[in-house]
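Ticket 4471: requesting a sanity check on a complex prediction with adenosine-5'-diphosphate. Repro inputs:
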Amino acid sequence: MNSATASAPGRVNLIGEHLDYNGGLCLPIAIDRRTSATVRRAAVSRRSSDVEPAGWTGYVEGVLAALAVDEPLDVAVSSTVPVGAGLSSSAALTCSVAVAVDALLGLGLDRDALAAACIRAENEHVGVPTGGMDQAAALYGAVGHALLLDFSAGSRTLVPFDPAGAGLDLLVVDTGVAHRLASSGYSDRRADCERAAAVLGLEHLAAATYEQLADLPEERLRRRARHVVTEQYRVRSFVAALQQSDWSEVGDLMTASHLSLRDDFEVSCPELDLVVTSALAAGALGARLTGGGFGGSAVVLCHADQRAGVSGRIIAEFARHARNAPTLYRVEASSAAAQVS
Ligand code: ADP
Ligand code: MG
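Returned structure tokens:
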């Protein structure tokens, strides 16, 4: 075999935001937007910096380094995952490359090993802290399912998730706002959470009880911790609501998650808030920011026959507030990374 091609999906986190590094729960889906990578044994050895301007090649080099590949490879990438929109184009890239390289070189690695390599590529090679949710979604997602990840137990469970079967649409709204302050804000939130956990004598903040919040000495730490504790509870309630096909409760929990991220965790921005308020005003069941926040995308749950009205309202409100037009598309829970040829 001289070449191998694999594709990997982007992801939307349905609920459980900023919980991965707090030892909590999150519930992403793999989406029907994918990155495809073809790797070939290269005739000549070239440095990637000779091939392309720096930036994206770091993710590829990071995967090759983590998989201890030392032979020269050509890598070609194409993608329908929007880049930098909070839908994890970076994990779609690393996971597609990892699966293709594993196939081409016959490494025989399991998915846990591939996930670890992709996490290391981002953490160590690119220098982006990533908690592991994105890579898990890309490597373990499934059609018609959400993936419940427990970062304390290290477990994962597929949960049936089929809004279309209930006459509903899941929409992604890309605000087009670059993740302003995303890296500094992310580090600040992590530091707050670590401090709150230390004060409470816990390894992970998600293990705190609501009663323990009163023991935190500062108002800001109490609010950060309140998001983590209540979000953890909301993920459990969300899974229970899915099992009962209680979509109205699912929507309410999404919106409650957004308000907690806006007011207590303070990672929203005016454009994300505008998506949520206009979607709800147009009759959506629920809406929330998805991903780290500070920009990027929101996710909206609405009746399929209300989709045009909800989309139109969001676009009109962005125009009225003199914001650049957002990009909207419907997504479905899709399949994990796989070799294509
Ligand atoms: P997100 O993962 O939310 O899309 P990140 O900032 O984590 O945002 O990752 C975006 C980066 O990943 C891009 O700046 C680029 O370096 C790289 N990347 C992702 N997908 C591609 C692609 N299809 N082609 C080239 N680079 C890509
Ligand atoms: Mg990313």
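Notes from triage: Residues 35, 55-56, 59, 77, 79, 83-90, 93 surround adenosine-5'-diphosphate (ligand 1) (CB under 6 Å). Leaving this open until the requester confirms.
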